[in-house]
Amino acid sequence: MLKYLRFCICLSLFWAVQLNAFEFTGSKWLGAQTDYYVDLEGISPTGIAWNTAFIDAMEEWTNETIFDFNLITEFKDPCESNGFNGVNFTTDICGQEFGENTLAVAIRTFRFEQLGPPSIREADIYFKDSVVYDIYDGNIVQFGIPTGSIDFQRTALHELGHVIGLDHEQFDSAIMRPEIGNIDRLQEDDIEGVDTLYSGLSNCAIKELRFGAVNESLSSGDCTVDELTLGDSDASFLDIYQFSLTETTELEFSIASNELESVLLLADQELDYIDADTNTANDCNSNIEIELDEGEYFLLVNTFTDQVKPACNTTGSYQLIANYISTNEVSLSGVTSLTGNDTTALFSGGITANGGISYGNIFTANDSLDITATISIDPVHQSKIGYIVIAAVVGQEIYLMNSLGQFVLSSESPGEIINTGSRILGTTENIVIAEDLIPSSLGIEEIVVDFVVGYGTFSNPSEVYFHQSPINLTVVPE
Question: CATH top-level class for 332-476?
Answer without folding.
Answer: mainly beta
